[in-house]
C-alpha cells in the first residue's frame, strides 16, 4: 500500500497544470518542435479519450459521481504525453524515468480507487495506439498534420455530441487548446511552420 502523500506525488505527474509547465519549459529550453507537437497531441488526446469513454460507457465508481471510467483519462493523457517524449530521446535513463512515471501514475490511480486495473490498462493501450498513429502520420504527412488534427478533432466533437447530453468541459478545453495552438503556430511562424511539425530527437 502507498502512503497518501506518495500517491499524491505520483498523481501530480498526470495533472494538466504540471504537464503544461513541462511542455512550456521544454518548448523554450529544449526543442520547440518537439514540445509544440507534444502539446498538440496532448490536447487532441483529451478529445479522443472523451469519445472512447462515450463509446464504451463503463460507469465510474459510485462515490466519484456521474461519468465514465474506461479508459482512464489520466492514464491515457500521461501515456500520450510521456510516451511521445520517450519516443524522441535516445537516452535509456530518460526512457526508464518515463516508464517509472507511468507506472507511478497507474499506482496512484489504483491507490485511491479512481480506476481499476482494466481502466488503467485501457488508458495505456489507447494512449500507445494514438501515439503510434500520430507518429506514423507525421512521417508521411508532416506538412498536413495541423489540418489532420483539426479536422479529426472536429469530427470527434460531433461524435461526442451524439454520445453525451453535455460534452464534458475538459473536452471543450482540449479542443479549443488544440485549435489555439495550431492557429498561433500558423500566425506566428508563417515561414517556419514546417519546422514545428517535423520529427525531432532530443536528449
List keywords for this structure.
single chain; 203 residues; mainly alpha; globular; PAP2/HPO_sf; membrane; PAP2/HPO; transmembrane; PAP2 superfamily protein
What would you say this structure looks like, in words?
The protein is an all-alpha fold and about 200 residues long. It has one domain (about 5-195). It is about 75% helix and about 0% strand. It is built from nine helices and no strands. The chain has helices at about 5-10, 15-30, 30-55, 75-85, 90-110, 115-140, 145-165, 170-190, 195. The longest helix has 25 residues, at about 30-55. The protein is globular and about 50 Å long. The relative contact order is 0.17. The mean pLDDT is about 90.
Radius of gyration: 17 Å
Task: Enumerate how many helices there are, as a single number.
Answer: 9
Quaternary organisation of the protein chains: single chain
Structural class by secondary-structure content: mainly alpha
Percent of residues in β-strands:
under 5%
The H-and-E topology, N to C, reads as HHHHHHHHH
What share of residues is helical? over 70%
C-alpha termini separation: 34 Å
Number of strands: 0
Largest sheet: none
Give the averaged pLDDT, no decimals: 90
Globally, the shape reads globular
Ranges where pLDDT stays below 50 over 5 or more residues in a row are none
Amino acid at each position: 500500500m502507498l502512503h497518501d502523500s506518495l500517491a499524491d506525488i505520483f498523481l501530480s505527474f498526470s495533472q494538466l497544470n504540471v504537464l503544461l509547465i513541462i511542455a512550456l519549459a521544454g518548448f523554450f529550453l529544449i526543442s520547440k518542435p518537439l514540445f509544440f507537437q507534444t502539446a498538440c497531441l496532448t490536447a487532441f488526446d483529451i478529445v479522443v479519450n472523451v469519445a472512447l469513454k462515450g463509446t464504451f460507457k463503463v460507469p465510474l465508481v459510485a462515490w466519484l459521481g456521474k461519468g465514465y471510467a474506461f479508459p482512464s483519462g489520466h492514464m491515457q493523457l500521461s501515456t500520450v504525453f510521456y510516451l511521445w517524449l520517450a519516443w524522441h530521446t535516445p537516452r535509456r535513463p530518460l526512457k526508464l524515468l518515463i516508464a517509472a512515471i507511468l507506472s507511478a501514475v497507474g499506482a496512484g490511480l489504483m491507490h485511491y480507487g479512481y480506476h481499476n486495473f482494466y481502466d488503467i490498462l485501457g488508458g495505456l493501450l489507447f494512449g500507445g495506439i494514438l501515439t503510434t498513429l500520430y507518429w506514423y502520420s507525421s512521417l508521411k504527412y508532416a506538412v498536413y498534420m495541423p489540418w489532420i488534427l483539426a479536422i479529426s478533432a472536429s469530427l470527434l466533437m460531433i461524435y461526442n455530441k451524439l454520445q453525451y447530453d453535455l460534452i464534458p468541459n475538459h473536452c471543450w478545453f482540449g479542443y479549443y487548446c488544440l485549435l489555439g495552438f495550431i492557429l498561433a503556430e500558423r500566425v506566428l511562424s508563417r515561414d517556419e511552420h514546417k519546422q514545428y511539425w517535423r520529427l525531432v530527437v532530443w536528449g
